[in-house]
Amino acid sequence: MPIENVRAFFSNYDLADRIQEFDTSLATAEMSANALGCELKQIAKTLSFLLKKQDKAILIVASGDKKVDNKKFKAHFNERPLMVPAESAMNVIGHEVGAICPFVINDGVEVYLDDSIKRVDTVFIACGSTSAIIELSLEELETYSGFLGWVDVCKD
Question: Which residues form the YbaK/aminoacyl-tRNA synthetase-associated domain (predicted)?
Answer without folding.
Answer: 26-142
